[in-house]
Design a protein that fits this description.
Blueprint lengths: L25 E5 L7 E7 L2 E12 L12 E8 L14 H15 L10 E11 L4 H15 L9 E8 L2 E4 L3 H6 L2 E8 L4 E5 L2 E2 L3 H37 L7
Helix pairs in contact: 1-2, 2-4
The structure holds uridine-5'-diphosphate (UDP).
The site of uridine-5'-diphosphate has 12 residues, from helix 2 and helix 3.
Length: 249
């Protein structure tokens, strides 16, 4: 049984001073790795995540190939130094699960039918972890896939909504994740509003769940703006390189 600590103060603010429906600060950069086909770097509160995308390229080994569409393979990895306690290197159950659900979320928006027998490989490296890394990884991965020029119907913006001290909270921090009553990571395709990732740990009533989904939807719109802004900045710089080296404002 987890120890009980107070997560909302008498003014209704959280341990890091946020309001219940407030996101941590998010910063996204697209195209940060020269050797990848697409890439993104994201800071989300104290989380730091780097994503590299390769492909579409021939899926290897061949038995993995789908003659009708590309497969999406994700490798989520926490760096050994990403947490207060050393993270054991190599795959584990949690990393395998997060890789799987991230690939499934991205398959909803990547136009895989265009690339039979191909693989789109997504490497998510968590450099610093502070709760919400699956959402941070998926959000950054969507930008990196777009940066690779892979056709998509939409991006994916993800954020967790949870519950602590009986109150719904957007974008759980580490203490809220550890000591709260529920954690529900949500991935949304912002243009269509389709839910492409939904997980749940803990308990919520039906009404709380409805409200949590609405909070997730609102957050996804804000995150989507940051994603498109990162992609716009990336292409503005490219045009400048072709021109006279001055960044286009
Ligand atoms: N965490 C850690 N070491 C691990 C797994 C998790 O330090 O091996 C921390 C990390 O800060 C992570 C948090 O626990 O962000 C919550 O993990 P969870 O499995 O809920 O996934 P996340 O919230 O990162 O998507």
């Amino acid at each position: 049984m987890a120890e009980k600590i107070k997560l909302i103060n008498d003014d209704g603010l959280r341990t890091d001073g946020r309001k219940p429906d407030e996101l941590r600060p998010i910063r996204i950069e697209a195209g940060v790795l020269a050797n990848a086909d697409g890439s993104a770097y994201l800071e989300w509160g104290a989380n730091k995540v780097l994503v590299a995308v390769y492909g579409p390229r021939e899926a290897q080994p061949k038995y993995l190939q789908d003659p009708m569409k590309a497969i999406v393979q994700v490798n989520y990895n926490m760096a050994a130094f990403s947490s207060e306690e050393r993270v054991r290197p190599g795959p584990n159950r949690r990393a395998t699960e997060i890789s799987k659900i991230t690939a499934e979320a991205l398959e909803n928006v990547i136009i895989t039918n265009n690339f039979p027998r191909a693989s789109i490989d997504v490497f998510i490296e968590v450099l610093e972890a502070d709760a919400g890394t699956r959402c941070a990884g998926l959000t950054a991965a969507a930008v990196a896939v777009a940066d690779a020029g892979i056709p998509m119907t939409d991006l994916v913006a993800a954020c967790a909504v949870g519950k602590a001290d009986g109150q719904l909270l957007l974008d759980l921090g580490k203490k809220e994740d550890n000591f709260g009553e529920a954690d529900m990571p949500i991935g949304i395709a912002p243009r269509t509003g389709d839910i492409v990732l939904l997980q749940m740990d803990g308990d919520m009533t039906q009404e709380e769940m409805r409200k949590a989904l609405r909070m997730g939807m609102d957050a996804s719109r804000k995150i989507h703006e940051l994603q498109t802004d990162a992609l716009r900045r990336r292409y503005a710089v490219n045009f400048a390189d072709m021109d006279d080296g001055e960044a286009v404002q």
